[in-house]
Structure formats: structure tokens, C-alpha cells
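Suppose you are handed a protein chain with no further information: no name, no annotation, nothing but its sequence. What can you learn? This example shows the usual starting point.
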Amino acid sequence: MSGPDRHEDDRRANRRGLARLVTGLPGHPLHPPLTDLTVGMFVLASALAVIGYVGIIEEQASHGAWLAAIGGLIASVPTASTGFADWVLLEWGSRQWRTATWHLTVMLVAVTLLGLAAWAQYSGYQEGRVTTLGLVLTLSGTAVLGVGGWLGGSLVFVHGVRVLAAGREQGGAAGVAGEVTEAKESTR
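A reasonable first move is to predict its three-dimensional structure. Written in C-alpha cells, the prediction is:
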């Protein structure tokens, strides 16, 4: 193949390569493993906030809670980016899209609460104590994060989003869009 058709094929291949950089390979999306890091950091922040608030290793726990919250906020950037990249590939208005939109909205609320918690806890970080507002916001944000995680799990386990059809080759030509299309067709 040569001429204009070859250049168009090259452009399509480059777009697929860029998409896979953000969304992952077929059957191996990037968003789910990144959620483990983000959720883990926020759960650690919550546990350390509780431990510090009740007076067990208060200074160390207050420092750890704030640092874990900051780590969770940093990790939430690539996590949200890869999730957003998956979201835009869904058929707008479908059941999967509605569930994913709720997931996205709930997670934005959770990360906002946890960002406010980090802000409220900064003075406690400096003074070696867990602030009441920092604790309340951290626990609230983590509870909302749990609801968002439940919605995200339903995207995979109920709706089959980004799940390869049984027997499909991982390196198939359809790529990311093919995964989403297969998932949509299997849940109609």
C-alpha cells in the first residue's frame, strides 16, 4: 500500500498507540490498577487519621495521614485521566455511560472531600496532631470513595465494560474501541 491510504493507516495506528498509552491494552485497562494505588493511599490516610485522633502515636500518625492524603491526591490525577479516557469511549446515554457518569461524579466528590481534608489537616501536620475537621473530611471522603468504587466495580462485573469476550485474542485489531463495543453488545 502506498500514497494517501498508507498515510491514513499510519495516522490511525498512531491514534491507537496514543489511546493505548492512556487506556491500556485490550483486556488490560490502566484505570483499575491505578485505582488500587489511589484508594490505598486514601484508606491509609483514614486509618492513620483515626489512630492519631485517638492518641495512638499521634504525631507520627498525623504526619502519615497528611502525607498519605497528598499521595492519594497525586495518584488520583493519572487514575482520573485513565478513567476519563475510558468514559469518553462509552456510548453516550447507554446504561454503561450512565453508571460511569455516576461513578465519575461520585469520585469527583470523594476527591474534593479528601482534598479539603488535606487542606484542613495541614495545620495538624505542622503541629503533630489530627484536626477534627481533617478527620471528619477524611472519613467522609473515604466513605464516598467506597460508593464510587462500588459503582466502578459494577461497570466491570455487571456491565462488562473493558472486558474481552471469551476466546478473543488480546492483540486483536479492534483494540480499545472493540472492547467497549463488545461490552456494550453483551449487556443490551
